[in-house]
Queue: 2 jobs
Job 1
Amino acid sequence: MTTNTILLLLLSLVIAGGVSYFQYFFKAKNKSNVIWFLAFLRFLAIYGLLVLLINPIITKNSLEITKTPLAIAVDNSSSITALKSDKKVEELYNKLVSNPALKEKFEIQSYQFDADFKPSDKFDFKGKQTNLDEVAKNLKSINKNLIFPTVIITDGNQTTGKDYVYRFDPANKVYPLVVGDTTTFLDLKINQLNVNKYAFHKNKFPVEVFLQYAGDKTVNADFTIAQGNLIIAKEKVSFSPSKKTATLNLLLPADKVGLQIFKASISSNSKEKNSYNNTKNFAVEIIDQKSTIAIVSSINHPDIAALKRSIEVNAQRKVILVKPSDINQLQDVSVLVLYQPTATFKAIFDNNKLAGTNMFVITGTNTDFNFLNQQQNNLVFKMSGQREDYLSEFQSQFNLFAIDNIGFENFPPLQNLFGTITTNGNVSVLLSSKIRNVATNAPLLAFAENQGKRTAFLLGENSWKWRLQSHIDNQSFEKYDVFIDKIIQYLASTTSRKSLVVTHESFYNSGEAIEINAQYFNKNYEFDEKARLTITVTNAETKQTKNYDLLKGNNSFSVNLDGLSTGKYNFIVKELNTNTSYSSHFEILDFDIEKQFVNPDVLKLKQLALQTNGKAFFENQADDLIQQLLENKEYKSIEKNVSTKTPLIDWVWLLVLIALLLTTEWFVRKYNGLL
């Protein structure tokens, strides 16, 4: 408090005293006790008001002790229960948090982690995944810019997330407290199984299997893949102390269409502690997508050979070459490729008006454009007899199907007759044309859809040069062939645009996220944010039904169905305003990744401790861990002098006191007849 403030307070005493004296004692004949009491009340009230006007600053000093945080993160995943260490983990946790010396030195922070990370001092060990990376990421954020130790009570077996060894801050020591039996048991394990989710009917699909062995003797094992009771593949595998892994590559037949469930198993004559990790279920969707593509042309051109090669890269496509007069060969084709049509193609067009086969029209210098104008109305051609070279420009807003720019702007020009080309109706342009870098605003590659019938237009010949240029740029034909395959795939599909589009997998592994996404479009095929989507999920065996609302996200609606048990499920997604619906099914396969382990991952936890200059301890070394934390002189409490300055005007109770004094004075005067 400054000298000026003190002088003002003293002056306030004099003023308050003077006013009270003047009002109650100056020329007063009666100086009873009541008068003295009233003068005292008036003195206090006036002095309080003057003090508020002066508003002195009250400074309060206090000592504050800040302890170093001690983060204790407990593994709450089901692998702790599988290793029969759940009671031990709780015992170790309670021993740490109840230690008086640790509580005196540290601010103890308790957390649990499985797939997620959160503060907790209660554990149920039911987590379906283990993500130690979440521990590292969250602790960096919670204790930002602090030096603190971390104790992790875990088996170290991570099932999801990034490698945790190098994710923790090297400046902060990590002390893993390893739980679980570290004794090496004989164990055969299917470590990983790689297979495509889809395969084509009557083909063979590859399966890659990684097997792992733990033990100290030579073991011979049998690996099998079965479908139901039928064994469809079998291999013998040998392991030894020097050979602890094996990789198998098998080809399985895709004999049946639809979702096919398989079971991979490895077994031996030796008894194992954990046999759950000896089997793994997987599923493959077998698709029957064989299609015949007819290229119709009355001339010979390198484009035809290049197009045939690109289409037949996909084993599910077969290309036939047809003359315009061979209508009988076109009965079972999926797509008609009409190369430079002329009047000789009239029978083809007339026949296709009834057949309704989707078409890919390629024009060039030999095309009869007047005839083409008569046979379709998607594009209107006004062409001269002069030839012109057209470069391409990729249109990124194209959205009929997913396509990447494979370097179209660098491709050689296509040759066509010079003229104007205008679109009519529902036409989407993937490539527009340029003449010597001057945009023509005309299409070069366009797609049209009318009444469910799809047509593609490539307006120029010499596309064989595109395929060669793509090979020069990428040392492979792959990108160009995928580009052609997507065009054929779009034309081979007879499915028109739907207002309700639902995305989901045919099968899920138990324990992983089960998410179904949906989009609802209005009549203009614009995403409708006001749609109300629900999903009804029914267990095919028990007939138990559950209903959920789909929540709107970024241009889609989604629902998370975690918690469903293994089995087959049917579901219906419905838009409530229009009653539009979509129905399908999926299956949840029995696979608990947390039951795959027989030992803690001691090696990784020691690497983590070494990376952060900490130390790994085993479950019988908890006392050693406590001793090390207490003896470490890096972690000291910080004593701070906290100075708090409060202006007197913030003291609400002083205003209340002044009001109370004035009120009391009034009542006393009233009672004694002095008003």
Note: Residues 3-24 form the longest helix (22 residues).
Job 2
Amino acid sequence: MPATFVRIERPDRPPPLPRHVSWHARANVIALAWAMLAVCAAATVGPLGLPSWLPVHLLLLGTVTNAIVTWTEHFTVALLRLPATSDRYQAGRLAVLNTGVLVLVLGAASGLVPFAVVSAVAVLGVVAVHTLALARASRGALAGRFAHIGAWYTAAGASFVLGAALGTMMLLDSAGPQVQQRLLAAHVHLNLLGWVGLAVIGSLFTLWPTILRTRIVEGAGTVARRVLVPVLVGLGAGAAGLATGTRWVALAGIVLYAAGILVCLVPLVRTALRERPSGAAAWSVAASLVWLLAALAVDVHALAVHAPHEVHTVLQPLLPLFLVGFTGQVLLGSLTYLFPVVLGGGPRAVKAGTALLGRGWPVRLAALNLALPLTLLPGAWGTAAWVPVLASAATFVLLAAVAALRAWEVKAGPGLIGTGLGAALTALALVFALGAPVQEGSTVTPTGRTETVEVALGDMVIEPGTITVDPGDELVLEVTNEDAQPHDLRMENGTRTPVLAPGESATLEVGVVEGPLRGWCSVMGHRASGMEMTVLTTGDDVPLTEHGEHPEGTTADPLDLSGEFGEGWEPVDAALDPAPDTDEHDVEIRVGETEQEVAPGVRRPVWTFGGTAPGPVLRGKVGDVFDITLINDGTMGHSIDFHAGSLAPDEPMRTLAPGEELTYRFTADKAGAWLYHCSTAPMTHHLANGMYGAVIIDPPDLAEVDREYLLVQGELYPGEPGDAEQTEHIRAGRPQAWMFNGAAMGYEHAPLAARVDERVRVWVVAAGPVGGTSFHVVGARFDTVYKEGAHLLGPDDAGGAQTLDLATAQGGFVETTFPEAGHYPFVDHDLSHAEGGAHGHFEVEEP
């Protein structure tokens, strides 16, 4: 009888994994490894001194990008019935992607910019190739109810490519600070709303009904096809508006994007109404969509009230809520459903894997979503709130690791799990070691003592300006904003407070002090205006770079004033209308920020009263009452100070936050040419950028004349409004140009009219903010001079005058007649000012 060989299989051994299932399981393990690194980084940012961007990029570039690249390829192939991609291609793609992410993180952390740039290009290239492959495959697929999915994934990939390109530009750090902030805001929107948002929403049209184990509702495919274009247009406009500083374009774009997402959620809600969500996967995805809507609402509000270069600073404290609430939870929910499927092993194994990943899910889901908003609390409470959030995320990653190890018959004991955590922390320690700046001689031993110092923010100073502690002492700052506008405190070692509203306080744990540290307020223009402090250790004699010093140097090179103004430019009308025949003046003035042509061919940002710089002219008689309604439509705090009135400044001159308004009531009981201006600190910035105007209160005996004009002289400074360059030149009294009524050489191109023998009165107000004027009309003499409320010369006097000299914030008028036709220049007779733009002329014609 011949021998027979019998092979006995273990009855509980799962069947071999199909090739595509096994591949996706291993690819998702890579994503889970990045997730564990992100959790560890978030938990150790403070103790290890890791950069705050590290956990964000570990999550987005490591976990989310791996998951999107893997699953968008899988869904496209499966739903469009396309041939599967080869193992070699997928392995090569993920190898390049993950190597690029690793080198990018290490290069950025260690300051090795060339490595970071090259790796960023590599990551960008992988996603670009992946996106092109999906687009090509989708075009070649048969049209069907899932045909939309390729378009959504292509749009998501294109958003990543654009966002990554902006991120690479920021690594090169070739732009100014405001441009960098605008690019950063656009980069964040393209990556979060585009790469993540479009990929997630595109997938949920089919994944959500699958999770709920029901059919796709009728009309879902139509919504998916029709809404993509407006959503993509909105995202593109939002990013473009942020990058270019066009605020209303950015706002309109994000509003359009948000409206499109709301439409996309309608079929998902209809599906949930038909089949109630149950289990960890469904409720995690549902919670993530609530966070998405909340994030879009906050984003729209931020764009509505803040300038583009301020948007990222405002939203930065809220980004963790979006990252964890939306991105993290949708990933947890999706993998809870998908990961057991790709692990394979048959229905029983999938059911067991799903049950494993769902262990304790109600507690984990509640802990994450209830604790997440509490992370915004200052100090220890906010830090403590991260414990349940990170514990919830870490628990899922560990359960997923156990599921994978069980499926592959690897015993997942405590030792193996501990080894994995140790490896993650070791990797983070390596990143920290490479990324932390080397501090020569940093051999200070902590003393164990804590020095607590109270710090006050206000009036453009930080008090105390210098703090001295013993080397090795731990420094804690109790910071209070005693000003009427927001401030924060950022230290050179990366620690910082949130932006503090007036009256708010925060505790800033600076850490162990080893050597000199600088601190400053990061609100635009405040550091440049003097809001800096220094922390020294006992015995230090280390001079720090002086405030306002720029290594590359700055100059106030004069502008070329010989050109032409742009097409459509019109000067401020200098003709002064008579005082209205009323004793009560009700005036509404809206504050805003815009651009204005301030010299031939030169457009600059300006801050305005009433939309122009200078602001609207107010005119009245002695005893008139002015009711001024001031409305702040701007993006920062502003106020107003009328020199023509006399009253306590506490309330009517207080700083208004964006969107606020007040009524300023004063009685003009004294005649004169009065200045009004913004009185919010730093006042030099607000005046230098256009926030001034004139109030004319006629003297009781004012005679009628043939023509009246008003010239408000101001100064133009180089640089962006409020930046260090501009502040340096203001303090040095070095304008780049001088202006009458908001434009240098404006009345050379638009001369003022007069006729021979007409009596012409010219009111002049010197707005500064630094210098005054010596007003002179070439070829004419003044027979009347009125200065600061008094006549210095009358037409019946024997003498005459050649100039009206005014110090900063003074005003008056002169009168003259022109003896013959011709061109009569008027100038500030400080001739450097005249040659720098304080120059115009009268064009005098025959009667």
Note: The radius of gyration is 34 Å.
